[in-house]
Structures are given as C-alpha cells and as structure tokens.
C-alpha cells in the first residue's frame, strides 16, 4: 500500500533540479524535460527554494495543494504530465515507479520551505 502523502526534498545542483531519497536508493536524481519549468512555477513563492524545499505529492487532492498534474501519455519508459490550467508538459522518468505501482492519472503537489 502506498502512502497517502509522500515527500521529497528537491534542490538545485549544478543548474539542475535534483533530489535524493535514501529509501529508494536515488541520489541526485534529476528532473528533466519540462519538469524543471514546472518546479520553477511551483516554487516561485517558496523562500530559498534553490537550496532545497519540501515537495509534498499525492494521488488525491489534499489541503493546500498548489498544482495538479494530469497524465498525458507514456513515452520511453517514463510518463508525460501536463500542469492543469497551463500549457506546460513535463516527463517523469521511471523513478516514478519507486513511488507508485503504475503511472497515476493525477498527481497533486505542494512546495513548502524546508
């Protein structure tokens, strides 16, 4: 069974948004192909986000969520998502499956200071 809310702590490393998660053996796992731009939107009001922030995400809406990602399509073992209400798409790599058994149709997210 998956947690209802999950948390990672992305940070900027050599110009790329990355995160570490010892529970899943991910180290400096990069966000690529449109996701960095989505993170920039998400963190625009998060103080000192470049030095790290808390990213809460869930399959279901939760109090205070900021953005909603809608699944678009599978591609190269990863999945494309669109930021709801914006003309922005981003690709989440197969590391997504470290958190979900299958690519979710919806991901709700919130950025908070560390």
Description:
The longest helix has 8 residues, at 35-42. The strands form 2 sheets. The protein has a 6-stranded antiparallel β-sheet, covered by helices on one side. Strands 2-3-4 form a 3-stranded antiparallel β-sheet, with no helix packed on it. 18% of the residues are buried. It is globular and about 30 Å long. It has 114 residues and is mainly beta. It has one helix at residues 35-42, and strands at residues 6-8, 11-13, 16-21, 26-30, 53-58, 67-75, 78-83, 89-92, 106-113.
Features:
114 residues, mainly beta, 6-stranded antiparallel beta sheet, 3-stranded antiparallel beta sheet, 1 helix, 9 strands, 44% strand, globular
Q: What is the 3D form?
A: globular
The count of DSSP E runs of length 2 or more, i.e. the number of strands, is 9
Runs in which pLDDT lies below 50 for 5 or more consecutive residues are none
* Helical segment count: 1
Global structural class: mainly beta
The SSE order reads EEEEHEEEEE
Report strand order across the widest sheet.
1-5-9-6-7-8
Mean pLDDT: 94
The proportion of residues forming helix, as a percent range, comes to: under 10%
Q: Report the portion of residues in β strands.
A: 35-45%
- The first-to-last residue Cα distance is 26 Å
> Main beta sheet, described?
6 strands, antiparallel
Alpha carbon gyration radius = 13 Å
